[in-house]
Amino acid sequence: QVQLVQSGGGLVQPGGSLRLSCAASGLPLDSSVIGWFRQAPGKEREGVSCINSSDGFSDGFAHFIDSVKGRFTISKRNAENTVWLQMIRLKPEDTAVYYCAAGGICTVVGGKLTLDAADFGSWGQGIQVTVSS
Fold it and tell me: 9 or 29: which carries more pLDDT confidence?
């Protein structure tokens, strides 16, 4: 049984940083596409970033939507079967419940990331990120 357990959310002031973790069991992350989504109150779930599976040469390439490029990064430690989403220079509009998901498709067309939540079969429990002064 696949289980994704998230941690690391919280309240931070604008300009601050947070690191979210997503620890997996029952699924080797190095061979899975991992996506990060967020859902703000009253809005649809939005794909934020993804990292492809490891290919023997790298841990996988990460992609981001334009609004978080340069502020969010993904790192992965296969030995711990954990993926992290590092967020810096956070803005109030980043406030949302963040989810990690596994097993989906990471599509980039013309430099634009497209993530469809319906493609991902395993989900973390979600964690609140609030950016407010």
Answer: 9
User: What's the number of CA atoms in the CB half-sphere (13 Å) around residue 67?
Assistant: 10
DSSP state of 58: S
Tokens coding 45: 């779930």
Q: 7 exposed, middle or buried (CB, 10 Å; 0-12, 13-18, 19+)?
A: middle
The β-bridge partners of 23 are 5, 82
Strand partners, 34: 51, 102
The C-alpha torsion from 67 through 31 and 127 to 89, rounded to 10°, is -30
Residue 119 DSSP symbol:
G
What does the pLDDT look like over 112-131, one tens digit per residue? 898 999 999 999 999 999 99
**Smallest Cα–Cα separation from 100: which of 131, 77, 126, 69?**
126
